[in-house]
Write a structure and sequence with these properties.
The protein has 412 residues and is α/β, with parallel strands linked by helices. Helices cover 36% and strands 29% of the residues. The protein binds adenosine-5-diphosphoribose (APR) and P-hydroxybenzoic acid.
Amino acid sequence: MPVVSKLRVVPAHIAQRERQTVRTQIGIVGAGPAGLVLAHLLHLQGIESVVIESRSRKYIEERIRAGLLEHGTVDLLIETGVGKRLQREALTHHGIELRFNRRGHRIDFNDLTGGKTVTIYAQQEVIKDLVAARLEAGLPLIFEASDVSVHNFDGANPSIRFRVAGKAQELHCDYIAGCDGFHGICRPSIPAGVLTEFERIYPFGWLGILAQAPPSSPELVYTYHERGFALLTMRTTEVSRLYLQVPYDEEIDAWSDDRIWSELRTRTAADGNWKLNEGAIFQKGITGMRSYVVEPMQYGKMFLAGDAAHIVPPTGAKGLNLAVADVRIMAQAFAEFYKTGKTELLDRYSEIVLRRVWKAQRFSWWMTSMLHRFDTDNAFDERRQIAELDYVTSSRAAMTTLAENYVGLPWD
Ligand code: APR
Ligand code: PHB
């Protein structure tokens, strides 16, 4: 079949020749947390990889996402040498507050989990640190790749084709890591009938803002209110990150700054002298909420990680942490293969990571279900949710369940 190249119609075999080919061990699609942490861990094991990203460096370094790291994620970044700025700038938290009926209840992670903590450090800061480490080490990370496609991963010669600056390239590799997020091309390239999808879509989304205002509380506040959920979190000691539950089809234009502050004040109101700090809003957006898992997370010589294989609603802040947990196992499996030639861990990759994925799904669904209004007319559900919050904040056993999941279950 003829192929159009530089406005000339050339036969396919000549187009093939014009495609520049490169070889590596692992071809990684996507430079989000999953792709970049994987590339970093592989490098430390002496395994070569090339990361292919469709967006620009600026875009991925500025993309606003969540910002809460489990203690295991933090340990991994520090132990592997990319946690220096994190150690200087991040905020360590020893607990969270659950607020309902105008009263706050602290969940003390320190006490309940034997000293574990969580850390506030925005996802784009993690991305900046990983990109800088990779580029400083002179390792391949290709931005603004277009027409990315994956080939032959069910056979012996997997490859990734793409274009950069109009030039066709083909990366031959031993394995492909599909780290290209929920809307990427890796998962949909797996033949029909192989994957099973599990999904729950929620009838609401989160309106998120960044505001030039010091955090109103030293720790995160998760609020249940009859008008809907609200979350007070932060980025720095000067910048607040605040979220409101809104209907899933809500338009951002319906939310003026005044309306956002008024709704936040109402939902987070508490007895005593607590006050919501307000300031200039410099970013706002709405994201939908979904729980999604695909099984298995591998096919032939392609392995999926992070949002390419699963999505959690943000209520438990598990998205980035799960992506890191996946690639930690994937890197171990590749290391075993290159050291011993054995594919035992690679063969079991999906089975191993899905156990953690489903526990994080359960936790994220549970936090979401406990804290959001699903049906504002349903008085039974409201009483039940209040009873659950009352239980979770008064039983040490229940608080421990929340705390150990929130800080991150052990990595086994
Ligand atoms: N080719 C190359 N890159 C692609 C393609 C493609 N066809 N499609 C998507 N990408 C890139 C995206 O631009 C993005 O940079 O893949 C990357 C995927 O990154 P993320 O979406 O951040 O996914 P992941 O690395 O799995 O991290 C999961 O990110 O979405 C948040 O909340 C989520 O915190 C979680 C974390
Ligand atoms: C955030 O800081 O963006 C954040 C924190 C906790 C969550 C979700 C988002 O549950």
